[in-house]
Write a structure and sequence with these properties.
2 domains, 36% helix, binds 5'-O-[(R)-(carboxyoxy)(hydroxy)phosphoryl]adenosine, 5-stranded mixed sheet, Nucleotidyltransferase, domain 5, 381 residues, 10 helices, alpha/beta, binds zinc ion
Length: 381
């Protein structure tokens, strides 16, 4: 049960300064300042990010409250991202929110950024509620979760190295495209027109799909995108040494990269969905949820009504999702200590452990899962 009444959320974990007011699942106000100071560096510069948050946070809160038509005395609580993220960046929003809440004697809760992403889709789609499979795909994380209830998360798999968004960002850079790389790769891929009757000119690997095919394999739900990024870099280097160079091949390479990432994500999600009882809903969160090819393939695989992707404004970093997660936790009576600090590697709260065992029956392999509550986060299986 979410807190009744408006909750102020603040998000400053990376390069978006955002504030929002959410009241019982409705976004009353949402302000986002995207820092463009990083574009010249091809990635986020932590020190610049923190300084830009300091400049923007007051204005974003004022704007979100103005849009919502509420003043500080109308608020019922405050939440801010405490991690994971860049520590200097996190500290700006967290300290601001704590000081604001303390001064007005408002309940305060520190929020996990990825839990925020899980709550994002529910702000726009009433059906995006547990139980579901959560596919979180951002620039820093790639996680596959079984969500039976809000606050109880079973981590089925995650990336063993780069996040999906990171693979897009770094590959885009290698191909001479801009930052952030995800939208650039998607745009370049859309420019690619296959020659009729001819196979795709490049083939990139689909990591951890062909070998980890048994549910008893500890890596069955896990992913890896670092090798894929390297495979693209090898192709790019080869093409640079050929007449005509790399440039004419960028759309085809971008398309193949997008296909590879999407195929892995969809296939791993299908593996996860196969072990839960119907209805098999899939809730997607994180910036890569903006990828139209990913949405298309998920909808094809699970059905349009079963896939819940937020709009780009809610899929990428924003404070509305943080306010939603805060409202849910505050509504249960949870409060954070005023001494809570920023934690760049904050573990997801509410992780439950499960052991996955394969049973080889006459009709093939099925999976059996046993649950136990754990205080400490664990990686499953
Ligand atoms: O969730 P998010 O806004 O920030 C983090 O928490 O990291 O995700 C940012 C990531 C970046 O890696 C960006 O390249 C990726 O989301 N992204 C996309 C698209 N739009 C953003 N990736 C693929 N296709 C897109 N259209
Ligand atoms: Zn994010």
């Amino acid at each position: 049960m979410a807190l009744r009444g408006p909750v102020l959320g603040i998000e400053t974990s990376c390069d978006e300064t955002s504030a929002a007011v959410v009241d019982q699942g409705r976004v009353l106000g949402l302000a986002i300042a995207s820092q463009d100071a990083h574009a010249a560096f091809g990635g986020v510069v932590p020190e610049i990010a923190a300084r830009e948050h300091v400049k923007a946070v007051d204005a974003m809160v004022a704007l979100a409250m103005k849009q919502a038509g509420v003043g500080p005395s109308d608020l019922e609580g405050v939440g801010a991202t405490a991690g994971p993220g860049l520590v200097g960046a996190l500290l700006v929003g967290l300290s601001w929110a704590k000081a604001f809440a303390f001064a007005r004697a408002l309940p305060f809760i520190a929020v996990h950024h990825m839990e925020g992403h899980l709550f994002g889709a529910a702000l726009e789609h009433p059906g995006a509620r547990p139980p579901f499979i959560g596919l979180l795909v951002s620039g820093g994380h790639t996680m596959l979760l079984e969500v039976r209830d809000w606050g109880r998360y079973r981590l089925l798999g995650q990336t063993r190295d780069d996040a999906a968004g990171e693979a897009f960002d770094k590959s885009a850079r290698r191909l001479g495209l801009g930052y952030p790389g995800g939208p650039e790769i998607q745009r370049a891929a859309e420019r690619w027109a296959p020659a009729p009757g001819k196979p795709a000119p490049f083939s990139l690997p689909r990591p951890m799909l062909s070998s980890q095919t048994n549910p008893a394999d500890p890596a069955y739900f896990d992913m890896s995108f670092s090798g894929l990024k390297t495979a693209l870099a090898v192709q790019a280097a080869r093409l640079e040494g050929e007449p005509g160079g790399l440039e004419p091949h960028v759309p085809a390479l971008a398309n193949e990269l997008q296909e590879a990432v999407v195929e892995v994500l969809v296939e791993k999600t299908a593996r996860a969905a196969a072990i839960i009882s119907p209805p098999r809903r899939v809730v997607v969160g994180g910036g890569v949820a903006c990828n139209t090819r990913l949405r298309e393939c998920l909808e094809e695989r699970f059905g349009k009504d079963m896939v819940f992707c937020p709009s780009p404004r809610i899929a990428t970093d924003n404070a509305a999702m943080i306010a939603a997660a805060a409202a849910w936790r505050l509504g249960r009576g949870e409060r954070s200590s005023w001494s809570v600090g920023a934690d760049p590697a904050l573990p997801l709260p509410g992780l439950i452990q499960a052991s996955v065992g394969a049973i080889n029956g006459p009709r093939g392999t099925s999976t059996e899962i046993r649950y136990t509550e754990r205080k400490k986060p664990v990686h499953v299986p």
